[in-house]
Amino acid sequence: MNKIHIYKSIKQLQNLPLEKESTFVIIDNNLKHLHSIFKGFKTFCFEFSESKKIFSTVEEIARQLLEAGADRNCFIIGIGGGITTDITGFTASIYKRGVKFGFVPTTLLSQVDASIGGKNGVNLNSYKNILGVINQPLWIAICPELLQTLPEEEFKAGIAEVLKTFILFDKDYYTKAVEYFSKVAQKYAAQEGKEYGTIAVEEDIDTLTDIIGKCAQYKCGVVKRDEFEKGERRLLNLGHTFAHAIEKLKGDSGIMHGHAVSMGMVIAAKIGDYLKDGESGTQQSSFTQMLIDDLRKVGLPALLEECPITKELKISHLADAVSKDKKVQGKNIHFIVPNGIENVKDITIELDKIKQIANDLR
Ligand SMILES: NC(=O)c1ccc[n+]([C@@H]2O[C@H](COP(=O)([O-])OP(=O)(O)OC[C@H]3O[C@@H](n4cnc5c(N)ncnc54)[C@H](O)[C@@H]3O)[C@@H](O)[C@H]2O)c1
Ligand SMILES: [Zn+2]
């Protein structure tokens, strides 16, 4: 299982124990400014985007590694967001039947989620992550200072996953994260011109590092206990069933995954209320209301009508897309229901029931 290094400043990345001769660095084009940190290493830059997350990119990287003399004992580092780490991890896993690799995730989403857990892969046509492996990196180096250049919406997409993890596991850190990112949202609104990432990092790097480190450790712990998603790891899908349905319906309009997860968590909380409420479905719990308020405070859309891309959608429109989810088994689906913080359940529910509730909630 992998080791997580937490480095508060970018300079500390130079402390990674690496052999210059045998280390090959794969880096996202948008992070060229990190070249100076990895001076002297064989470095390959790629434009990584969802449309480039395909097998031909894996072949291209492998070709360049081969030409540069990477042998079976080489070490590969992926530096970038989840797209970079997914592709790099997959390439390293099959290059010469598998070589060792490590990650330097550079988006909030990849620092707390995508780089951790060993799922590596690429898309096939419009199907996401169809070709892939589960294979753990040797280490993951998390450096919150890297996030200072991250665009606002990318940052917020990561906040949704941070809050999701703390809803599952940690009331105190949930409160801490909501406070931190609400303050950042307020400062960003007040200081026009200053980049969101800079404000988020400068607000209090120690607290930010603590929040990210804690969140990464929770994901790592779940993966250690349930690497192949037979039980506990399924909890990490909180908010994701309806998020995937939103993405399916609105993917082409550029809805961000984290924003879809934000709205998906609220829908899951509403479904939890419905199931608790003797199925009259009218009572909104104080937890659901708090979740809606907190997501708004940190600048995430809580309800479909609050996001320009989804404002025409109703929960009932999403029900059909839910039935095509990967997690469907026959007539049932595993659904993650949050009834409160640290009070989240993995239930098996009939698809027809989910559809009926979605129709009632509209
Ligand atoms: N393997 C897993 O368990 C897992 C989990 C969740 C998501 N994912 C995958 O992760 C991908 C999404 O990853 P992501 O959200 O990290 O996005 P990403 O890799 O697409 O990066 C988002 C954008 O930010 C840029 N960027 C990255 N770091 C930056 C920085 N520090 N400063 C400025 N710009 C920066 C990138 O160039 C890109 O344009 C999806 O393909 C998804 O399938 C994988
Ligand atoms: Zn997610």
Description of the molecule:
The structure is a single chain. This protein is an alpha/beta fold and 362 residues long. It folds into two domains: 3-147, Rossmann fold; 151-362, Dehydroquinate synthase-like - alpha domain (Dehydroquinate synthase-like, alpha domain). Helices cover 45% and strands 18% of the residues. The protein has helices at residues 55-67, 82-94, 108-114, 152-169, 171-190, 196-203, 205-225, 240-250, 257-276, 286-297, 315-322, 351-361; strands at residues 3-6, 23-28, 42-46, 75-80, 100-105, 119-124, 127-134, 139-142, 328-329, 332-340, 343-350. It has a six-stranded parallel β-sheet. It has a three-stranded antiparallel β-sheet with strand order 9-10-11. Helix 1 crosses helix 2. The model has no long low-confidence stretch (mean pLDDT 94). Nicotinamide-adenine-dinucleotide binds next to helix 2, helix 3, strand 7 and helix 4.
